[in-house]
Amino acid sequence: MANLNQEQLRRLARLGAVARLSQLREEEAAIRSEFPDLFGRGGRKSGSAEDPAPAPGKRRRRRRKMSAEARKAASDRMRKYWEEHRKAKAEK
Predict the structure, then answer these.
(1) CA-to-CA separations, 17 to 21, 24, 54, 67, 88, in angstroms, rounded
(2) Cα dihedral 39/42/44/45 (nearest 10)
(3) What was the pLDDT predicted at 44?
(4) What is the mean pLDDT of residues 16-43?
(5) In the prediction, which pLDDT does 47 show?
(6) What CA–CA distance (Å, rounded) separates 25 from 22?
(7) Phi, psi dihedral angles at 9 (to 5 degrees)
(8) Cβ contacts of residue 28 below 8 Å, gap of 6+?
(9) Residues near 70 by beta carbon (within 8 Å), at least 6 away in sequence
């Protein structure tokens, strides 16, 4: 086995990583073409036990809309919280 310095090992490792990523992308494309309903928005029943979890980078957070009253209440609570926080900090 040839003696390789750190730079040569790193370069070879990088080449191997690039090749592996290329293989993974090809595999992903094949899976996506075979099972398009797994990745698209339409055609899938939500809540079914057969549905797989979304891909790690593809999750979307859905937030409930806050009413104006709820926003005002949260604002008042936080204003009071920070007022007390500053008061406690000033007393130290």
Answers:
(1) 6, 10, 25, 49, 54
(2) 140
(3) 46
(4) 87
(5) 47
(6) 5
(7) -60, -45
(8) none
(9) none
